[in-house]
Write a structure and sequence with these properties.
Helix content is about 50%, strand content about 15%. It is of the alpha+beta class.
Length: about 400
């Protein structure tokens, strides 16, 4: 492949201080700029995507499904574009990809249901890691190769990679901005995270305008198709295999894959008590179905002393952390009959549990009580258009366990 000779060149004294190598044409600057915009967006949403999905009420397994959909969708789209790319100009394909990036950002900000979001994750351009694994990468690489002389091609690709890595890191650092907005402006965490996806869409708008400035090469319909790889086939397949292994390792280390004990504990509380609210009869039926062992004495799980009825179990299951205890009560609080649902979780960091609980629910703390090393906090929140009180208490030796309880009017 012979690269086109760039039509413009900057004076040599300025080139020494420029980002681009001397053999690069104007198109290279647009591609590096667009790479920077996309890298910032990828670094930002790669960290915020699991937090946002958790705030929408999805559990760790469902978040993993979204991560799988983004990766498999990117792979399918890249293969599809590779099969038809010879029929279109690289400029038009990049513009179309930028349009898809814009739609992806708006869709994630506005759509909240599982199946529509899953379709967007598969079809869209979101990455589950800050590395670029989308359809943009091969298209920009092909355009870069045609925007620089043979001598400076390696230098330009090195700059392209550095820009992506550095600005991607800045994007990851900016992932703390939604929490700052929540504290400074008073936005709900879900709204602050939605703003991040709107920013992702705006970055796509910026990339689109940059792609529009690329030269529009003509497509020769009568040209013979490119010959298949021959001598370089082994090298290309080896590099592809190495890239696949690198990507697999990156995804295993991504926030989506790091579903630690705190995530499992919070999922257990959310599924058992919070998502549908306490339900005495439903929980008893669940315990019978799953064969949970009744507790002989588990009244310490009850958040309200004035109990009418108590049921507790040593709960087991693949979806529950080891040693989980679950209890439901009917009780009286301030003259009202209420139902409670409690989950006792072992070896859980209380501060981290509370932090992630805030991200998911945007709860408001209304009371706190301390007795020695034991800390009890009471929160109010709305789940499924229903007002609930949540009582979080540290328990066990040195607070090594946590009791999370939900309270609703009967």
């Amino acid at each position: 492949m012979t690269a086109q000779t760039p039509t413009e060149a900057l004076p040599e004294p300025k080139r020494r201080l420029a980002l681009l190598p001397s053999g690069a044409g104007p198109a290279a600057s647009y591609l590096l700029a667009s790479r920077g915009l996309r890298a910032f967006g990828d670094g930002l949403v790669s960290l915020l995507l699991p937090a946002y999905l958790a705030a929408l009420g999805f559990n760790a397994f469902e978040i993993g499904i979204f991560a799988t959909a983004t990766l498999s969708g990117s792979a399918a789209l890249t293969l599809g574009v590779g099969a038809i790319a010879h029929r279109f100009s690289r400029r038009s394909l990049l513009i179309a990809a930028a349009g898809l990036m814009i739609l992806t950002g708006f869709a994630f900000a506005l759509v909240h249901d599982f199946w529509p979001l899953l379709v967007v994750a598969f079809v869209g351009t979101l990455n589950p890691s800050s590395g670029d694994v989308s359809v943009f990468l091969p298209l920009e690489h092909a355009e870069l190769a045609h925007s620089v002389t043979d001598r400076d091609r390696t230098a330009l690709f090195a700059r392209y990679s550095v820009v992506g890595s550095l600005i991607g890191a800045v994007g990851a650092l900016a992932a703390g901005a939604p929490d700052l907005l929540r504290q400074l402006v008073g936005l709900e965490i879900k709204q602050a995270l939605q703003l991040a996806f709107l920013l992702y869409a705006l970055l796509g708008v910026g990339a689109l305008f940059l792609y529009r400035r690329l030269p529009d090469e003509s497509i020769d319909a009568s040209a013979a198709p490119a010959e298949p790889l021959r001598k370089s086939r082994t090298i290309v397949l080896t590099l592809a295999a190495l890239f696949s292994l690198t990507l697999a390792a990156a995804c295993l280390a991504s926030p989506h894959a790091l579903a630690d004990g705190v995530d499992r504990a919070l999922d257990a509380f959310h599924r058992t008590c919070l998502a549908q609210g306490p339900d005495f009869e439903r929980t008893i039926a669940l315990a019978k179905t799953r064969g949970w062992t009744p507790l002989s004495d588990g009244t310490d799980l009850a958040p309200i002393e004035d109990m009418k009825v108590f049921r507790g179990w040593q709960a087991t299951g693949a979806d529950l952390p080891a040693g989980t205890m679950i209890a439901v009560t009917r009780a009286t609080m301030d003259g009202r009959t209420v139902q409670t649902c409690s989950v006792k979780l072992l070896d859980v960091d209380r501060a981290e549990f509370e932090k992630r609980f805030f991200v998911r629910t945007d709860a408001e703390k209304i009371a706190e009580k301390r007795k020695g090393s034991v800390i009890s906090r009471l929160f109010i929140l709305i789940v499924g258009n229903r007002r609930q009180l949540v009582h979080l208490t540290s328990a066990g030796v040195q607070g090594s366990a946590i009791i999370a309880s939900s309270i609703v009017d009967e």
